[in-house]
Design goal:
56% helix
């Protein structure tokens, strides 16, 4: 954080999500620690890069700072400017409804993911049980004894 202390266009901060910062962390989807977020404070993104100082410093130098948005239209391309214009022309109620619908889509995607992972876990557990049962049945059918008889017949020994 000291590397960017006093920067006019970059803030690197630390939030304790177990105490007073918990509401802020909850509202930004922080579920595990440490979590690194970046971007517009109203639309933070998950950082997926390296966690050592050099990787974080490189990311901050190259990626953090002013970006396209309503406050920085000069950093936007034509398509982004059209999108901002579309949203600024909406009423507050229309914008709230659009945000709610989009957030609903995010929630639905997360729920679908969780449901499918649970189904995969059950499938995995079933396959593991079937495999373990098959192995136990084969071993119980005399496989070990067959190997012992083969090894003792004719004095043949298996190489290790």
């Amino acid at each position: 954080m000291a590397e960017f202390d006093g920067s006019a266009d970059r803030l690197v901060g630390d939030v304790d999500c177990t105490a007073a910062g918990k509401p802020l962390c909850d509202s930004n989807g922080v579920q595990g620690f440490p979590t690194i977020k970046f971007g517009d404070p109203n639309n933070l993104e998950d950082y997926q890069g390296g966690r050592d100082f050099d990787a974080l410093k490189k990311f901050a130098d190259e990626s953090l700072g002013p970006s396209c948005g309503p406050s920085n239209l000069d950093l936007c391309d034509d398509d982004q400017k059209k999108e901002i214009e579309k949203y600024t022309s909406m009423s507050a109620d229309e914008l709230d409804a659009a945000i709610k619908a989009a957030e609903g889509g995010l929630t639905e995607a997360e729920e679908t993911f969780k449901t499918e992972v649970e189904q995969l876990q059950k499938t995995y557990e079933g396959l593991m049980k079937a495999k373990d049962d098959a192995i136990a049945k084969i071993k119980a059918s005399g496989l070990g004894m067959m190997k012992s008889v083969k090894a003792s017949a004719g004095g043949a020994k298996e190489e290790l």
